[in-house]
Design brief:
alpha/beta, single chain, D-Maltodextrin-Binding Protein, domain 2, about 20% strand, five-stranded mixed beta sheet
Amino acid sequence: MKKIHLNIGHIGLLDAAPLLIAQERGFFEAEGLSVSLSCELGLATVFSKLAESRLDGACMPVHKPLLLAAGAGVPRVSMQAVVITSYQGTGIVIAKSKSASRAGGAGLRIGVIAQGSSAGLFLHRYQQLNRAGVLADATLVPVVASQFIDFFRDGMFDGFCGNDPLPSLAALRSDVGCVANSADLFPMHPGSVATLRAEVVERNPELAAAWARAVRRGCAECAEPAHQAEVWRLVLAQEPYMELDAQSRKALSCGPGENGPAGSSIRFKTTANEATRVTDPEGFIDAAGRSALGTSLRGFDLKAEIARSYLLETPRVAARVR
């Protein structure tokens, strides 16, 4: 395969770490790929650039290729989800003062990542497990990922359902509590995927396999405990965190663990011990897609699109989480 150049977008979340590591380690180049990674302001920008062919692919939440296929509030783009970059990685955080002052969560404003978020699925699951939880009757407020922390700090919403490292950043504040995360709600669910535009794959049939091999090597590196400080260093070097103070950077760069950041549930691969509690990947993608698409599901064959769009190698499911 001759060397192929790819422009790949992401929004600076922890799910993009395998791509950043693959770039740093030369994994793309080893597969004959010349890759330019660009950190975008938000998913809306990523989707626009995909539609305009200014990006060849992107790292995005696992259900987003379905929104692009349906053109549900976003440009219509046919994507191929090639490899899972992360599992779990979603957290629900609330300012402690707000949750205490609003009985039953009435009137709580919860920030979610832009249009077509799967946050509704996570919040609904939380309510199923905690019938008297603080999130009953909460109002969802769409916000781009890069503005989550600033808006939360300024009191524009009372909490949020967002992806790592946003829960970890919020947890650095003493008045913030992590209500739940992916590990509580959908253990080891597929979190994000590395995608390519379908037309790019069609032009280069060998491309998807080469792209997947390089990203999987990045995932394996990110999963090593010894590499956690480097993972956080690369992520915190992205645009959304340029103004983060030195003390916060140091706290986060310790990586997950006893002395590391709280609120993070992300995993970059499954282990043998975790394989028995993996949330059914296809079932989760279907549920997340239905939650995000809403009324746009009318006339849209969701199952057929999942079969077409997702070229994922997923772990064998021993017990389906319902």
